[in-house]
Design brief:
The complex is a heterodimer of chains A (433) and B (409).
Chain A (H helix, E strand, L loop, with lengths): L1 H14 L1 H28 L11 E5 L19 E2 H10 L4 E13 L9 E8 L2 H5 L4 E4 L4 H5 L4 E4 L1 H8 L8 E4 L2 E9 L22 E4 H6 L9 E2 L12 E9 L3 H20 L10 E4 H7 L5 H31 L1 H9 L4 H35 L13 H26 L4 H7 L1
Parallel strand pairs in A: 4-9, 6-8
Antiparallel strand pairs in A: 1-11, 1-12, 2-11, 3-4, 3-7, 3-11, 5-8, 6-9, 7-8, 10-11
Helix pairs in contact in A: 1-12, 2-10, 2-12, 2-13, 10-13, 11-14, 12-13
Chain B lengths: L3 H8 L2 H32 L10 E7 L7 H13 L4 E6 L11 E4 L10 E7 L3 H5 L3 E4 L8 E2 H9 L9 E5 H7 L9 E4 L3 E9 L15 E4 L1 E2 L8 E5 L4 H15 L4 E7 H8 L1 H35 L1 H9 L4 H37 L9 H25 L4 H6 L1
Parallel strand pairs in B: 4-10, 6-11, 7-9
Antiparallel strand pairs in B: 1-12, 1-13, 2-12, 3-4, 5-9, 7-10, 8-9
Helix pairs in contact in B: 2-9, 2-11, 2-12, 3-7, 9-12, 11-12
Classes of the chains: A alpha+beta (433), B alpha+beta (409).
Amino acid sequence: MGAYYLRLALRALRNSPVLTALMVLALAVGIGASMTMLTVLHVLSGDPLPGRSAHLYYPQVDPRPLARGSNGNPEPPGLLTYIDAENLLHQGKATRAAVMYQGGDVVQPPAGSALHPFVVNSRLTGRDFFSMFEVPFHYGAPWSAADDAGAAHVAVISRSLDRKLFGGADSVGRMLGFGGHSFRIVGVLAHWRPVPRFYDLNASRFGQIEDVFIPFNTARALNLGVNGTTNCYGQTTGNLDTSPCGYIQMWVQLDSRRAAAAYRRFLADYSAQQHAAGRFQRQPNVRLDDLMQWLAYNHVVPEDVRMQAWLALGFLLVCVVNTVGLLLAKFLRRSGEIGVRRALGASRRAIFAQLLIEAGMIGAAGALLGLLLTWLGLWAVRQQPSDYASLAHLQPAMLVATLALALLASLVAGLLPAWRACLIAPALQLKSS
Amino acid sequence: MAIRPIIASLSRHRIAALLIVFEIALAFAIVSNAVFLIRERLQRMDIVSGVADHQLVQVQMAYIGNEPDAEARAQVDIAALRQIPGVRDVALINQLPFADRSSNGGIKLGPRQRWNTVHVAEYFGQNIISTLGLRLIAGRKFSPGEYLGFGAVVRALHSDNQKELPHIVIVTEALAERLWPGQPALGKTFYMGNGIQFRVIGVITNLLRPEVPSIGADYSILLPIRISLQQAAGYIIRCAPQDRERVLKAAVATLKRIDPNRVLLKHRTFEQIRHAYFQNDRAMAGILVGVIAALLLTTAFGIAGLASFWVQQRTRQIGVRRALGARRVDILRYFQTENFLLATAGIALGCAAAIGINVWLMAHYAVPRLPIIYLPIGAVTLWLLGQLAVLGPALRAARVAPTTAMRAA
């Protein structure tokens, strides 16, 4: 029976090629537009560390002076001062913890290299950064706890910097000239691109990771500058680390809800203690978001991308309504044929099934063409200048979703016309033709 | 044209009629909001920077490690850059509109005022007014002797040495109007930081803040502070628009020659900076235009498809009407009026939807209220679109011969 309906549907579609092409095209354009935008949305709102993100937390305390009237943000600032970062790092109980900031400086290529000096970004952090975020190493390993404590002149570099400076060879043990200082390379990272670049949302949110990683203590001892946001709440002292200036991000790993609750209590107790000592003017005001909460709190997915996704869905709705109208016209136009089939004994159910199969075939054609358009649309998105542009690729899950959406849309669009068409009274049609 | 028979006929095709109404309503709601969003983006991109947009280029360099005699070096660089043919002015400025760094501060009107009245962007560097092409409308510029070195100012700030700090300032017209509405700003004073007093000695027309906030985008001040390359957004050079590319190349070569150990970070025209700042707005506007076009096209095809189905279904009725004396133009008008009625119903429904979408957008995104003028614009667009889409089928209907009625019967 199914095969017969398929043949019937094919013949019907061939009989009105222009109308069929219009329906397929409209559906495909709607599918293409919405799947392009939904893919971008999906990529940008993904979990950068699946499986681990629920255990990673971002602590915040509030060292600001008293509120500035009603227009001040009641939430604690997103960056820690040096004093708070050090205190939290040493007093808090977490499985792992790392403080960090972004710097940027000039790389001095090794002697004999044809390269000119160039500027790269650096992440100045602790060794737990690598284990906590499961950062993969190509050569070597993170620096040691002793390196952290002793502010050793050691560095981990990215794979791309290793390629640029050393032709991709194992550079562990070699020296890196950076910011006018010399660092012993202890590790080279394998390719790592968390999306979004969650650990520091002040810098490029969907960009590449930094090229140089240096222990936080070393960076502070050498006074390597901040290449990012610095927010000062009061009179600076001329020394960043004693000024009321937030510039540090901190991440802690807490393996259970209990540990997280305990850490939140610790943040409140710490704030109360600082308040009692007169360092904090405000009552304890803390936050401890896990990774996904932190991304949502910071509105990581650009507003434009969300708006585009809604726009595309609205467009798909118009395309579906349009298909409903055209299918209705197409089915009712064949009232005579349907009347004959009914008169020859086809049940309403059979007519309904046949017409739905016809709608489904339009959906299948629309899906294939829509897939092509999605692929084209994503290509177009990749040509845009945004920092997330290069991430817009078709993913297997979205591919399946595209096909399913197209089929579903066409079937939904077919329901009303098919129902309307199988109400046709056979006798009336036979008489009039 | 009698409307009653049209409505009677439509009520026999309720589903198809409702579909068209619904489709037009959706298209109307989406298109009027999308057009408004495009307009918004274009307006944002049109903002006046206050500087000579087409005459500026930027060259940013970095030293490896700290530079000891930075201020002297800067003077050597500037003198050399001035020698390049076509260069009108050169300055080291800490920031530029649309560029990626900004220095901001709060202003208080009284020394003991608790909260800041307003936040402003602080521009410093020598020779800003002539290099950026700002227009002084009252008072005077800073004289060369009034500038203080950046390092000295920072030291004075930390030792709270009021004598070594600057106490004069040039403000934008918009800021002056905000602080002292309707009064001349010259000679007025305000306070920044730990009660440091500033007296206004000049007023310029306009100068955007680097990050362009939505409120007070041109609340900027100029301070008489001399900076070196390390604090600057680079050398800002002013030249004739047609000379920019050549001057940019020559400037890079000159700076490299003076000190080959410096790293070139950026060299670009101000127009490129501005272009890059609005790249997302431009992309969004482009996407919106694409969606509107596709949407209107789809709607037109939908209307045409249903209309031609109706014409086909009613061939016999049309034949009867023609046989009873209706002229071709009557048939044509019939279908055009019918489409007009459907479009009107769709637009009425769409108005409600458009306002609903706008209210939802306002609640969730930074989108302002949809001005009422967009509704008639959208309405006219969809009326025209409907008429255009129905024209083909209607003409076909008008060609139906009166004899059709008899032949079929």
